[in-house]
Amino acid sequence: MGRTVLVTGVSRYLGGRMAVLLASDPAVSNVIGVDVVPPDLAIPGTEFVRADIRNPVIAKVMGEAGVDTVVHMGVIATSKQAGGRSTMKEINVIGTMQLLAACQRTPSVRSLIVKSTAAVYGSGPKDPAKFSEDMEPRHAPSSGWAKDSVEVETYVRGFARRRPDVTVTNLRFANFIGPHVQTALTAYFSLPVVPTVFGFDPRLQFVHEDDGLEAIRTAVLAPRQGTFNVAGDGVLMLSQALRRARRPTIAVPGPMFSAVGRALSPRGLADFSAEAVRYLTFGRALDTRAMRRTLGFEPSWTSEGAFMSFMNRDELAPEADVA
Known about the structure:
By secondary structure, the chain is α/β, with parallel strands linked by helices. 38% of the residues lie in helices and 19% in strands. Helix 5 (144-162) links the parallel strand 5 and strand 6 (167-173).
């Protein structure tokens, strides 16, 4: 018998693609996709269950199906997706707590893979050249998705201590980018005029959407205990990315950046929160040696190649997803 995998967040682009990828793998027997709303299109090979991971009923779903692997992709990146900051935090943090409680009560669970983010390292002037997984943030996130992700990781570590028989893989992704995924950062690069913080040229790192999903699949099929940075090789300076994007830019003093950015993004898809502004001021880069040595994953796309894949896209996904 192959794996029985539960994937959260399947009604969004990345979660849906992950479910399809796993369902087509001969090592996986069953894929159960969970979300609060049904996907726009049917997900081949996946049994969809309409459920809210904030509700303890998720434990019943897992127990009845005999789930042995859980892929948690149900964390929301922007408050616009959730309908407000309070709802976003409840989905991200309370939802994760309930999911972990369900994993705790389900004896069949043997592996948990969490899609986290490199935003947990924060961004600031005292950052190292590259963050490795054992480094503490020099400028810890204080708001939004990044802070939620820090809390989520705290609860995941607690679960790992309570269930040492479960292999817990925490993947800290650089910003997802590619021809189809739409995120707050791809919305930023798609603005008619792109604001930058005057006097700063941050380092950016990306993971191609295909590579990100393949890293999760690798963790499902060959579970590895621990936390792993996942990113394409190399970095792009923001100025280099904008030249490749061929977008007009406007340099804005730091204190005015958020207001100007929001004015230039009338649909509100680009993120100009405090944490996003710090990232677009100072940037961030990741040490990915553990990804190769321990997780056993080698990206096919460099950061620059992933960005160019986004620039050469034909169309965007219909809605924003987690970056």
